[in-house]
Amino acid sequence: MKELEDRILSEGIVREGDVLKVDSFLNHRCDTQLYDHMGAEWARLFAGEPVDKILTIEASGIGIACVAARHFGNVPVVFARKTESINLDGSQYRTQIHSYTHGRDYHVIVAKRFLTPGEHVLIIDDFLANGCALNGLLQICEDAGVSVTGIGIAVEKGFQPGGKSLRERGYHLESLAIVDSMDPATGKITFREQ
Amino acid sequence: MKELEDRILSEGIVREGDVLKVDSFLNHRCDTQLYDHMGAEWARLFAGEPVDKILTIEASGIGIACVAARHFGNVPVVFARKTESINLDGSQYRTQIHSYTHGRDYHVIVAKRFLTPGEHVLIIDDFLANGCALNGLLQICEDAGVSVTGIGIAVEKGFQPGGKSLRERGYHLESLAIVDSMDPATGKITFREQ
Questions:
Q1: Which pLDDT value is given to residue B63?
Q2: Residue A166 to chain B, least CA–CA distance (Å)
Q3: Closest alpha carbon within chain A to B76
Q4: Which chain A positions have a beta carbon within 8 Å of B81's beta carbon?
Q5: What is the CA radius of gyration of chain A?
Q6: Cβ(A10)–Cβ(A25) below 8 Å
Q7: Counting one residue from A and one from B, how many pairs have CB atoms under 8 Å apart?
Q8: CATH number belonging to the domain at B2-191, selected among 3.40.50.300, 2.60.40.420, 3.40.50.2020, 3.40.50.10610
Q9: Is A38:A4 a contact under the CB 8 Å cutoff?
Q10: Using an 8 Å Cβ cutoff, are A77 and A134 in contact?
Q11: Which of A187, B47, B73, B182 is deepest in the core (most CB within 10 A)?
């Protein structure tokens, strides 16, 4: 998606350690007009495929998913919650996710009553790198017995293994921008042709 | 706002300790159509007042704020981030907020470059009870030298002191539903006439 790539080129900051900062429009300051265009693009890319619900994960995925929902007929959005405490009454799906960014594991939960077996779920998130967060969401989808229509990602780091692995497993993955390389010394960012 | 009050009456769950669970449509499963109607209602209530930016706080405020932004000309949304680590390089506004729900304090930060002195900010959040989170956001606004146009809240607990205090301090506060009383024994919820 050219508009997103252009914003990454003009405002993205490359840091050591494979860090790409895009907080001026994607995940701290939210450009809601860009979000709207991203939602329209995912609707085009997933046209004709069933979407009953969008699943995302707090915090950065929520705004993107909620704005995108309008382009899928205002379907509900469910966001997985990060939590320190796990409710043991069996009312929640839960999974453990490793954060490379923060160097630790955390738990996410989704209340069981908000995922209905058989329904068609589109997963949306802001970033895909190693795929840890997405694998957690996919585990929850499997536990819930929902059907994953596809995965919509804003920015994929194509030089990290998450995207390749998900495509090999047969998921319909649509990343609006795939960064194939980035250089903290020069700031140069190269995108995959799509 | 009758649509929101009706949803609270039909799906809200009152628990001991002044807890009102509305996670089936407001802050875990997100009814994006309701969010859109809430945004339209805030646009009506703040009509003619300047709004350059919306400020909210992770996580539950983000989706509501990003959908509402469409009704204010797709202004950007900035969300305050909860954080364990404070960047000491002076690039962030920061404040400490007490959570009665979780019985502890936490820090929130906003990058300084995302608030511009003199701009007009509308604050949006899902809940107002004691006002701790809002007071933290207001402190950040004061530190940043921005002008607070008003505060849009989905559900105010009118029997707790946050809303009264903010109105007495002169803020233009618009809560779409104000719960004046709720009874965990009977489940009965009473709204303030608006």
A1: 98
A2: 26
A3: A31
A4: 28, 59
A5: 16
A6: no
A7: 98
A8: 3.40.50.2020
A9: yes
A10: no
A11: B182
If you write DSSP's letter for every residue of A36-100 in order, what string do you get? HHHHHHHHHHTTTS--SEEEEETTHHHHHHHHHGGGGTS--EEEEEEESS--TTS-EEEEEEEET
Look at B59 and A63 and tell me if their CB atoms are within 8 Å.
no
Q: Which two tokens stand for residue A99?
A: 């954060």
Residue B66 and residue A24: Cβ atoms within 8 Å? no
pLDDT for position A90: 79
Min Cα–Cα distance to chain B from A168, Å: 30
Which of B67, B74, B79 has the CB atom closest to A66's CB atom? Answer: B67
pTM summary value: 0.97
Longest dimension (CA), chain A: 52
- The single residue listed with the structure tokens 């604050």 is B123
User: Identity (one letter) of the amino acid at B191?
Assistant: F
**Span A2-79+115-191: which CATH code?**
3.40.50.2020
* B82 has pLDDT over 80: yes
